[in-house]
Design a protein that fits this description.
By secondary structure, this protein is an alpha+beta fold. The chain is built from 28 helices and 25 strands. It folds into five domains: 72 residues, 2-Layer Sandwich (Alpha-Beta Plaits); 108 residues, Calcium-transporting ATPase, cytoplasmic transduction domain A (Distorted Sandwich), CATH 2.70.150.10; 123 residues; 128 residues, 3-Layer(aba) Sandwich (Rossmann fold); 120 residues, 3-Layer(aba) Sandwich (Calcium-transporting ATPase, cytoplasmic domain N), CATH 3.40.1110. Strands 5, 6, 7, 8, 9, 10, 11 and 12 form an eight-stranded antiparallel β-sheet that branches. A seven-stranded mixed β-sheet has the order 13-25-24-23-14-21-22, with helices on both faces. The protein has a six-stranded antiparallel β-sheet with strand order 15-20-19-18-17-16. A hairpin with a 5-residue loop joins strand 5 and strand 6.
Length: 739
């Protein structure tokens, strides 16, 4: 039987490590396909349970030098504990390396002529490399044992050679002095390289720690227990996994619905914002559908379980997020790919250089060859390559943060610059996400009547009532009316409320409530209500027992910058599409007012994700913007996911970019920032590679037969430092760029 599972992977140091684990898993008998996601440190494996098992997969991965957590019950907890442990260790190592590298650098610049300064740099650099930077040497050795190389190999090899060469020069300076050569030390180069690369790793680890939060939060929406009603009417609380289709489930006020089903008896309002994204709870009565994870309000009801366990809508959303996060990322780490070829090539060039000098120049060949070999290794140190991405990211992400844009990783920036279609949720993204009164019409108008409506609505359970109460609240500088006493209050499900005040009966609700009580609104009120309905606003009517007294328009305001943001996206050549669970009229009005190209109304979470996939299948690069739990599956499916900061934590966890201010105008700014940052990264990598392409042959001595020039290791070290400075300087230019 074929089975698809996601396993946390431990010990991944770079994208090359993820590729190696994937290769090992795919080589196992019975594995159909295995994708290792470096960002989330997980492996999505499809395998035949008759031919292999999670235990055999774990052993294969461990033999390759990594770890695979296969304990299904505790894998999330174990993986999180391991990630936290590794993160804390990396944080300590980075701090130690920086603290140690700074004095090494200062001493090398100003006190290297003093013998004590040389010994202090030796001790400190030894601690930096082999205590705080030991991970590079351990991982490099582990890779070499399995016949593989990665970025750690390059770091360990170059810094190790620089350190060994410096140690030799420190302990045996006469070896070079007797030959007329001034020995030089390169402790500062090795130390600073380790410190900078550890900083980059720490920034990367900090972003990756958040990737599993969305799944945990989604799983937290599933109640642990459910109240099952027996045939004799007794209620019993049992674990949710015991619930079966056909069971009668009781839901009390304030509880979460445990499984999907159909209401049998009772009435209530249920907050379904985690599914629809709409802030207004939905009225539930017999034959209405309810869904797992939604929150019941003040009423109580019983329903028949239709779908349980992995079949509920919530479970489907969780699986969609897991599959999207576990699928193979299209963006690969180019530096690690190049490193797998670059390292053996550089080492080969160094050895060939030494041999060629020794053979072709019998008199001084050994000395020149040894110096040239070490110069090649020193000058080819991956300092510039290692700094190219982290420095641009530090500046770019810092610039984004100062502008209210949080970016998780480089992959987000790489994808953002390719986006040609932006899909937006409506509520909380284009709109404010909270109902409010925008207009009122009173016939007649009086403070006393306003107080009656406010008092009546304050007793209502309906969410729109809060907006009415808030709108009718007297201003602080005005004398408030005494709060009237409402008696014989009655909640009329699906219509509104009724109450008696001062012997007079009052109604507040929809037009059906008035019609059922033979109340006909005046032409003036009907005309105003018609205008509001055309603008996709909700109308709340207020009446006494004989006539309509007022109509109140309630809506979710469009954010002031939404239209401008959409216009900016259009100017950048990006198509915009709005998806919403709201009705057609409201969606059409919002699309018209904001300038959205097209929209889809009445869309459920799985439909949102499917629509995003459809666009991707057509060849589009899609960015999804949302703020609710209902958007998490579509956010995970999209090429670029953007969450509005005022929304749910789950949407923010699932997203690659978060807009802290919930201001949509920041979205085109984020895309512009991605263009600038990725361009800077590419410039850095270009110059880093050009530097190596030119410097390595010169270090090997190709100019010696032409003009007698032979690069000294000290000059090689200076050139290496200069390449790093140029990369950092280019990255700092980002700070002055306008978004």
């Amino acid at each position: 039987m074929r089975k698809k599972e996601i396993f946390p992977v431990t010990g991944l140091g770079c994208a090359a490590c993820a590729a190696r684990v994937g290769k090992v898993l795919n080589a196992q008998d019975g594995v159909t396909e295995a994708n290792v996601n470096y960002a989330s440190a997980t492996a999505l494996v499809e395998y035949d349970t008759d031919r292999c098992s999670p235990e055999s997969l774990r052993k294969a991965v461990e033999e390759a030098g990594y770890g695979l957590i296969t304990d299904v019950e505790n894998e999330e907890e174990a993986a999180e504990a391991e990630r936290l442990k590794q993160y804390r260790a990396l944080r300590r190592q980075t701090a130690g390396a920086v603290i140690g590298a700074v004095p090494v650098f200062v001493l090398s610049m100003f006190f290297m002529d003093l013998r004590w300064g040389q010994w202090v740099t030796f001790v400190l650099s030894t601690v930096v490399l082999f205590v705080f930077g030991r991970r590079f040497f351990i991982n490099a050795w582990r890779q070499l044992r399995h016949g593989a190389v990665n970025m750690d190999t390059l770091v360990a090899g170059s810094t190790g050679v620089a350190w060994l060469f410096s140690v030799f020069n420190l302990f045996f300076p006469d070896f070079w002095l007797s030959r007329g050569i001034e020995p030089h030390l390169y402790f500062e180069a090795a130390s600073v390289i380790v410190a900078f690369i550890l900083i980059g790793r720490l920034l990367e680890a900090r972003a990756k720690r958040k990737t599993s939060g969305a799944i945990r939060a989604l799983m937290g929406l599933q109640p642990k227990t459910v109240t099952v009603v027996a045939a004799d009417g007794t209620e019993k609380e049992v674990p949710v996994q015991w619930a079966q289709p056909g069971d009668v489930i009781a839901v009390r006020p304030g509880e979460r619905v445990a499984v999907d089903g159909t209401v049998l008896s009772g009435e209530s309002y249920v907050d379904e914002s985690m599914l629809s994204g709409e802030p207004v709870p939905v009225h539930k009565q017999p034959d209405a559908k309810v869904f797992a994870g939604t929150i019941n309000q003040k009423g109580a009801f019983r329903f028949r379980a239709d779908r349980t366990g992995r079949d509920t809508v919530l479970s489907q959303i969780i699986r969609m997020v897991q599959d999207a996060q576990g699928s193979k990322a299209p963006v690969q780490n180019m530096v690690d790919k190049v490193a797998s070829v670059f390292v053996p090539v550089i080492m080969g060039i160094a050895l060939v250089t030494f041999a060629a000098w020794w053979i072709l120049a019998p008199s001084d060949g050994f000395i020149h060859g040894l110096l040239s070999m070490i110069t090649v290794l020193i000058i080819a140190c991956p300092c510039a390559l290692g700094l190219a991405t982290p420095t641009a990211l530090i500046v770019g992400i810092g610039k984004g943060a100062s502008n209210g844009i949080l970016i998780k990783d480089a992959a987000s920036l790489e994808v953002a610059r390719k986006v040609d279609t932006v899909v937006l949720d409506k509520t909380g993204t284009l709109t404010e996400g909270r109902p409010e009164v925008v207009d009122q019409c009173w016939v007649p108008d009086s403070g006393a009547l306003r107080s009656v409506l406010s008092a009546l609505e304050s007793l209502s359970e309906h969410p729109l009532a809060e907006a009415v109460v808030s709108a009718l609240r007297p201003e602080p500088d005005k004398e408030s009316q005494p709060v009237p006493e409402i008696v014989s209050f009655e909640n009329i499900p699906g219509k509104g409320v009724r109450g008696v005040c001062g012997g007079m009966t009052y109604f507040a609700g929809n037009l059906d409530l008035l019609s059922s009580n033979n109340i006909e609104p005046s032409d003036e009120l009907l005309a105003r209500a018609g205008e509001w309905l055309a603008q996709a606003r909700t109308v709340i009517w207020f009446a006494d027992s004989t006539r309509a007294l007022a109509a109140v328009a309630v809506t979710d305001r469009i954010k002031s910058t939404s239209a401008e943001a959409v216009a900016k996206l259009h100017h950048m050549g990006i198509r915009t599409v709005m998806l919403t669970g709201d009705n057609e009229a409201s969606a059409a009005a919002v699309a018209r007012q904001t300038g959205i190209d097209e929209f889809r109304a009445g869309v459920l979470p799985q439909d949102k994700a499917a629509f995003v996939k459809k666009l991707q299948d057509e060849g589009h690069k899609v960015a999804m913007i949302g703020d609710g739990i209902n958007d998490s599956a579509a956010l995970a499916r999209a090429d670029l996911s953007i969450a509005m900061g005022g929304g749910s934590d789950i949407a923010m966890d699932a997203a690659m970019i978060t807009i802290l201010s919930s201001d949509l105008i920041k979205v085109p700014d984020a895309i512009r920032l991605s263009h600038l940052t990725v361009r800077t990264i590419r410039q850095n990598l270009f110059w880093a590679f050009i530097y190596n392409i030119i410097a390595v042959p010169v270090a090997a001595g190709v100019l010696y037969p032409i003009n007698g020039f032979l690069l000294n290791p000290m000059i090689g070290g200076a050139a290496m430092a200069l390449s790093s400075v140029s990369v950092v300087t280019n990255s700092l230019r980002l700070r002055g760029k306008r978004l």
